[in-house]
Amino acid sequence: MTTPLHDQAIQHAIEAVILAADACRRVQQRRITPQTLEKRDKSPVTVADFAAQALVCHHLAENASVTAVVGEESADALRSEDEAATRAAVTEEVSESLGIECSEENVLGWIDRGSAAIEPGKGTYWTLDPIDGTKGFLRREQYAVALGLIEDGRVVLGVLACPNLEMPDAPGTGTLLAARRGQGVIRYSLAEDGSLDAHDLRATDDTTPRFCESVESAHSDQDQAAAIAQRIGITAPPYRIDSQAKYASLAAGLASVYLRMPTRPGYREKIWDHAAGSIVVEEAGGTVTDILGKPLDFSLGRELTANRGIAASVDFDHASIINAVTSVATLPSE
Ligand SMILES: Nc1ncnc2c1ncn2[C@@H]1O[C@H](COP(=O)(O)O)[C@@H](OP(=O)(O)O)[C@H]1O
Ligand SMILES: [Mg+2]
Ligand SMILES: [Mg+2]
Ligand SMILES: [Mg+2]
């Protein structure tokens, strides 16, 4: 398969993300009660998050010219004696995906390739969310494998696979979007066997303005978002979906506004939660800023420390959203 965006990096990114998405699908179907660990921040992480990170890092290391990865997960938790069963399960899944018998040490090493030391704002590195929306994944709802390429602090490429995101014009398949800065974005349907089929970017003729937001009220203040939606004249009920599938939905015309309203003082968005999604929306002709209208600054390391929340739009007056935020919302103190 070659992509019309004609770019080795995007080709490798798509291959890596499909490998990971396929492993996620398999884990979701097979492991009925997914083994879940809890990270220090109390968020869940599963066998599939670790396997997906190992697979993407391994594929990039073997094939791509840029191999540094800033990923969400690390193998630290898996190394403990208590986690022998999870470690074995992750190794089994990675081995099955690659069709070779892998050692636990190799798999842990591939996961840890996602802890590259970077100089913020300088050089070129990938940022990876092996499963964005782990809570959606556990509910068997929406999740995404998200891989972005950052060059001197700017996102220049993004691939977003949403294995459970079915578009109206491609029933029974997931969705994959691939964007290159200045070259647009292509929407593909992603079949169970990993094959891709290109579609028009827009998946629907319905132009009713809709806003989308997190399913998790702890991740975005839904009451504030409702007040803002009302202010900007959106009357349709919110489209609540997990993960960067929200950015995919905007790019494909299923929603026009994405709001992520801070719920906690001091929380900073992570680069892997927005790199791929934001370039997909921008290359679809949309706008992505924080809720105060500032451009997202990916040059500061692992977090978007200069930004608060997210406001994204396609085919919508972006300034009116920011005006509504400033007149309606009360933000949590720093
Ligand atoms: N208090 C908070 N505010 C905003 N985002 C949060 C948050 N706590 C966790 N998240 C992020 O929300 C992401 C999921 O996004 P969404 O709510 O849009 O589905 C999580 O990604 P992971 O699932 O990769 O950990 C996590 O990084
Ligand atoms: Mg997480
Ligand atoms: Mg995430
Ligand atoms: Mg994640």
Can you tag this structure with a few keywords?
D-Maltodextrin-Binding Protein, domain 2; alpha+beta; binds adenosine-3'-5'-diphosphate; single chain; 5-stranded mixed beta sheet; 2 domains; Fructose-1,6-Bisphosphatase, Chain A, domain 1; globular; binds magnesium ion; 7-stranded mixed beta sheet; 14 strands; 334 residues
Kindly describe this structure.
It holds the Pfam family Inositol_P. Mg(2+) binds at residues 72, 129, 131-132, 273. It is an enzyme of class 3 (hydrolase). The chain is an alpha+beta fold and 334 residues long. It has two domains: 8-199, 2-Layer Sandwich (Fructose-1,6-Bisphosphatase, Chain A, domain 1); 211-328, 3-Layer(aba) Sandwich (D-Maltodextrin-Binding Protein, domain 2), CATH 3.40.190.80. It has nine helices and 14 strands. The chain has helices at residues 8-30, 47-63, 84-98, 104-112, 134-138, 222-231, 245-251, 275-283, 318-328; strands at residues 36-38, 44-46, 69-71, 124-132, 144-151, 154-162, 174-180, 184-190, 196-199, 211-213, 239-240, 257-260, 287-289, 310-313. The strands form three sheets. The protein has a seven-stranded mixed β-sheet with strand order 3-4-5-6-7-8-9. Strands 11-10-12-14-13 form a five-stranded mixed β-sheet, with helices on both faces. Strand 7 and strand 8 (184-190) form a beta hairpin. Helix 2 (47-63) crosses helix 3, helix 2 (47-63) crosses helix 4 (104-112) and helix 6 packs across helix 9 (318-328). The radius of gyration is 19 Å and the shape is globular. Bound molecules: adenosine-3'-5'-diphosphate and magnesium ion (3 copies). One magnesium ion (MG) is lined by residues 43, 45, 72, 134.
